Amino acid sequence: MEEEKLKIALGADHAGFALKETIKTYLLEKGHETIDCGTMNENMSTDYPDWGFKTAMAVANNEADRGILICGTGIGMSMVANKVKGIRATLCHDHYTAQMSRKHNNSNILVLGSRVTPLDLALEITEIWLTTDFDYGKHEIRVEKINKLERECHTESSMSSCSCKTTPGKTFVVDHPLIQHKLSLLRDKNTSSKDFRDALQEISTLLVFPATKNLSLEKVEVETPIEKTETLALSGKKLAIVAVLRAGLGMVDGILRVIPNAKVGHIGLYRDPETLQPVDYYCKLPGDISERDILLVDPMLATGGSASSAADHLKKEGAKRIMLLSLLAAPEGIAHFHEKHPDIDIYVAAIDSHLNKNGYIVPGLGDAGDRLFGTK
Ligand code: RB5
After folding, report:
1. What is the distance in A from the centroid of ligand 1 to the CA of 52?
2. Between the chain's N and C termini, which has fewer beta carbons within 10 Å?
3. Does 37 participate in catalysis according to the annotation?
């Protein structure tokens, strides 16, 4: 019987890079398709959670049929991947664990440790893992029990992190079908500026819902046509939208559609050609910015430099609670932003593969500012 051809997402840190490249070649020779989620650079020490998360998300979102993750021991990658809902990542060291991880656990991510598993064995494990089917029957019942636990735990953990202000920053990929559909329009180079503007505003409206899910509410009394009742309204000072110029402007109206009373601030930054550091050239913020919840908007989180500087600026002005809304992010930008601002969560429609040598997100959508304003 001919071997099933699969689309496989690959991810590795610097320790796993070389093995990832070998496995990629091996998979392509076998006729499989691959999605390389990075890292692309063996010589730079990187953090395995960045690549593990991106790869696991590609599998969880059905962009890939399965995934393969590699770090030095395989341990860190297993931990990361198994945090993602729907992932069953299995660290395999030999033929038997590779086979059983498929037969009994319906593994959808194979994890390998490049420093503990010799190359030949790693390829044999990969082959066995790819060609072994799930046994169903009693094993399906057990895997379904894992799924049930996962559903329960995910609900609990997202509730508790809402109230905990000290939780380190998280990235939420908002992959609702409407958002994904509109994102495809934005990526298409043949989309006109007008359609691009409309789709970006619409996605921004949709991103607001998850980003504002933790706003505080207070009880208010209203009289319905039937009777008086107690209900809920937003409490205290409301929101500010702060756009990073110029592409951030393309997100503001979409957010104002659902939060019409939000105040709007603007921060303009350019990159100093000598130091390559972002420099503020314009900043106009609402006077009471320190009392508002802030939606910082910047469609492309590429290196993360501009968004991070904008957040620095807001914090200097006394901002206490900021959320970053972006359309597309590169793993490099997410890592940089979280390192500088672990207290700020990121809401993004998709995480792309990597940055190219010109600092553009790949596959991305080009320069969002040029596409919005037709300046290219
Ligand atoms: C990197 O040195 C190493 O810590 C990483 O590849 C992995 O083994 C972590 O679990």
Report:
1. 12
2. N
3. no
C-beta separation of 374 from 193 below 8 A: yes
d(CA 371, CA 72) in angstroms, rounded, equals: 41
**Structure tokens that stand for 314 in this block:** 């807001």
Q: What is the per-residue pLDDT across 160-178, written as a single tens digit (0 to 9) for each?
A: 232 223 335 688 888 889 9
Question: 130: CA distance to ligand 1 center in Å?
Answer: 24
Name residues whose C-beta falls within 8 Å of residue 81's C-beta, 6 or more positions apart in sequence: 52, 53, 55, 56, 67, 69, 87, 89, 109, 111
Residues lining ligand 1, Cβ inside 6 A:
13, 15, 48, 71-73, 75-76
Query: pLDDT at position 200, please?
Result: 97
3-state helix, strand, coil in the chain (%, to 5): 40, 25, 35
What are the tokens at 134? 């799930």
For residue 74, give the amino acid letter.
G
> Please, which residues have CB within 8 angstroms of residue 184's CB and are 6 or more apart in sequence?
none
- Amino acid (1-letter code) at residue 100: M
Residues contacting 17, CB < 8 A, separation 6+: 39, 41, 42
